[in-house]
User: Fold this.
Amino acid sequence: VLDQIHHPKNLGMIIRTAVGAGVGAVILTVRKGALVDDSVVRASTGTVFQIPIIVTSKLGDDLKRLKDAGFWVYGMDAAARVNVSEVDWPKRTALLVGNETKGIRPIVAKQCDELVSIPLENKLDSLNVAVATGIALFGITASR
Assistant:
């Protein structure tokens, strides 16, 4: 689940990674975020055609629907205290990642069951959103 990802290359790389990790669908926001266009198709190397892309105008409502359907919603947040590699990932998981500079919007973060982070060394405060998403998605896959 992508909350206002701005850069088409990040969106394309996230989609490509999601396909490789076996994700069932990608949800993205229609406002204030990149939508699938030629640059996203190129960045994904065409994998946008291998996964359902759901565009939403009410992300909070859709996260609530996912939770009602039995999904656990985990949000990526660099300041979270829960290590992404230490989570016992449920079978039905929705991973929420936020905008490249602002992260997940606070109103959307409230829908998360848990916020998780990737511990970093050498005083780094965050990773590129596509890289962080890839680490988390393959961590989820590996734990299963």
Notes: The radius of gyration is 14 Å.
